[in-house]
Amino acid sequence: MNSTPTIERRRVGAPLGASRAPRRVAWLAAPRLALSWAAGLSVLAGAAAVVFAAAPAAAAEATTEAPTAAAAPRLCTAYSGVPAGFAPARDGVPNRAGMIRIPAARFQMGSNEGYPEERNVRTVRLDGFLIDRHEVTNAEFARFVAATGYVTDAERARDPAQFPGIPKDQLVPGSVVFVWPKGTEQFDDAYRWWKFQPGANWRHPFGPGSSIAGKDNHPVVQVTYDDAKAYAKWLGRDLPTEAEYEYAARGGLDGDTYPWGNTPTVQGRYMANTWQGDFPAKNLVRDGYKGTAPVGCFPANGYGMFDPVGNVWQWTKDAYQDRHPKDEAENPLVVTVSQPVDTLERPARVIKGGSFLCAPNFCVRYRPSSRQPQDPTLGTVHIGFRTVLRAP
């Protein structure tokens, strides 16, 4: 196989796919950027426009059961968040600490049973590669920042020339955070669950009053696409393509709904950090975590990859298109689209895997085939990433 990704340029038809409609946010007033940030906000909780839509049949979960968390005991809590041998690339040699090998393969990408954007199912051939066993942690990202002095996008003021028309109070350093609803009056508009929070960044995910103290082994969040790329480059690595991520997340179970099979739970145990109960009214926290969990607290898939779904969404390298092409592909990578999502100047990127905010009645996207568009300039409290290393 050819180790160089096959570059695909596709035209995006509907702005956000058949299951969503772009919507403006009152506190984001500029016509262009309102659409840009609304595109990001529409996926913050898993597609606001389908908040009460029926979930895919394959992902339905009985609410009468009360499964338990899968990891017992939780040895993940003892993990420092930094694998042995972790260091930046040296003399052009990438660092491989904390990575697992994914074999070359041919698999069926996508799903005809999930949301519309998961179609079409296509045959994809991939070369082998390495991928992070865990999501990138706060501790790992902190080492990168300490070594390079890197300042994330959320920690910088936005340039009015690049974000024309945005109110001044939204040009300050900050990011978007999830606000747990306190009353049913908020349920009619998913955008009320999110707000721009000055001072929110990877060190303070929910704003100045929050902290990552004691969470070295939790996935880093509030990082944009460029932040994730900068970290990967420091290690001599890259972000995964959508196809690479989906194949690795499947763990060898080609065609199954989840990385562990076809049922949401296994013998009464939760297999990923997601939302239990009716979103957003009540989180029963049956898996043990209201927000992010330490990496590796749930069983690894067949390749040894932890948290392939749930916990936090994962950035991928692909530009977003509203569905997969039907043709077979080798090492595919969508780099440009002729009509970027929601008229973003930079194409939206694909994020994969779902998060702790995905529930059986909303955003049933804790599945390998699930995918969403995300504004590359916008980090959130439930988007993280991991890196890959391809063979030369």
TrEMBL record:
What sections of the sequence does the record tag as coiled-coil?
A: none
Give any Pfam family that matches: FGE-sulfatase
Q: Where are the transmembrane segments?
A: none
What range(s) does the Sulfatase-modifying factor enzyme-like domain occupy? 97-388
Q: Which GO terms describe its molecular function?
A: formylglycine-generating oxidase activity
The family database entries (InterPro entries) matched by this protein are listed as: CTDL_fold, Sulfatase_Mod_Factor_Kinase, SUMF_dom, SUMF_sf
Q: Which PANTHER family match?
A: FORMYLGLYCINE-GENERATING ENZYME, SULFATASE MODIFYING FACTOR 1, 2
Q: List the protein's name.
A: Formylglycine-generating enzyme family protein
